[in-house]
Here is the input.
Amino acid sequence: MAEHVKIIFEDKTYKFPVVVGSEGERAIDISKLRRNTGLVTLDPGFANTGSCSSSITFMNGEKGILRYRGIPIEQLAEHSTFPETAYLLINGALPTRKELNHFSVMLNDQSLVHEDMRIFFQNFPRHSHPMGILSSMVNALRSFYPERHIIEEEINLIVIHLLSKVRTLSAMSYKISRGHRVVYPRHDFSYCANFLNMMFDNPVKPYQIDKEVVDALNVFWILHADHEQNCSTSAVRVVGSGRVNLYAAISAGIAALWGPLHGGANQAVIEMLYDIAKNGNNVARVVERAKDKKDPFRLMGFGHRVYKTYDPRAKIMKKMCDKVLSKLNTSDPLLDIAKELEETALNDNYFIEHNLYPNVDFYSGIILRAIGIPTNMFTVMFAIGRLPGWIAQWKESVDDPNWRISRPRQIYIGSPETKYIPIDER
Ligand code: SDX
Here is the structure.
């Protein structure tokens, strides 16, 4: 017998169905609430509101579970590559060897961007933030690749354009920002190796592809690939619900991710650790500041709307830090500070009572620093990783027969009706 809830309002009783997900999550279907009762709900930040039903990613915040299309993130991080995981998210199943080879060839074939796009880069002020550049350039891609997205083949081509060209644009942006010659993608390199080569190869010191670094980058991007209805994915769905082209929806996702409370946290974590190092490593003082309600400072890389335990991605990231640093035969004092900060916070009642644990951004910057990625490009690295998730969620929304334009309601608390007063009488 289907479950339901009853709402009693103004002496009338209303029943609303309870929907149950494949992992037992339950939600009240209020799609007829206003029509039947005249009421709307109010839920700032949507902490209690589901925007859609989805079969892409499952998270359990209490148990620290994350699965893409049912496959645990730990198994994908251990066995998969980023292109294979991107295929899984977008197409709903792991590819056969033949399908993966075709997908990889398509990504390589579409890895160049129109030469005229280089002029755009040269006109951004040198100090422009790479996330602002990337959001603009992704929108500009539509002008150079104006395929409609009516039939499956056109959509698939746009998807390949985005997955491949966003990676190329990001490396180009870095090279041009340094006044260096752009390095072109190579057909004989894998997706991740190509990115590293485009970023770091130069005529003075040719870049040596290191398998362990390529493997670390694959895992880094796998861990970022999707995360159900987070802020930037919700932005992609909301903007996409107006039936705008996919490039514009992804550009909105990049803009949403930029914020320091969201994807921008990976850059903010490193800046926080750097400040701690610069000011005498006083970790205890930083933890006290994070607890002080009068102080706007928050412990960046800590806390999560869904995870109320250790973010499973942070666990993998933390292990990877040690592996990458030892492989590159280097150390990072900021890692030692991060570990001390984690230790202090996880033993502090405030963090325990608030269920605040390291999230994906807490250790990710250490890996990026070891690879040589500049700090202001950390969130760009997050965006490249999140791209297949945004695309998969957009596709699922446009294919959903129940999908409508997103248009939330509000409760008005402003002035009652007021007469216009001519300016000379004010
Ligand atoms: C990402 O949604 C996703 O899935 C996002 C993401 C993804 O993959 O897409 O996982 C990526 O964005 C990870 C989060 C990166 N952001 C940060 O690391 C920034 C620092 N963290 C916070 O600002 C905060 O924890 C959020 C933004 C992540 C979550 O905010 P919520 O869910 O709105 O929680 P809240 O702000 O209401 O805080 C609840 C309580 C408050 O205390 P009380 O007023 O209840 O006493 O916890 C406290 C907060 O003050 N708190 C923190 C804290 N985070 C929450 N206190 C100190 N330091 C922190 N980091």
In short: The longest helix spans residues 152-177. The mean pLDDT is 96. The first strand starts at residue 4 and ends at 9.
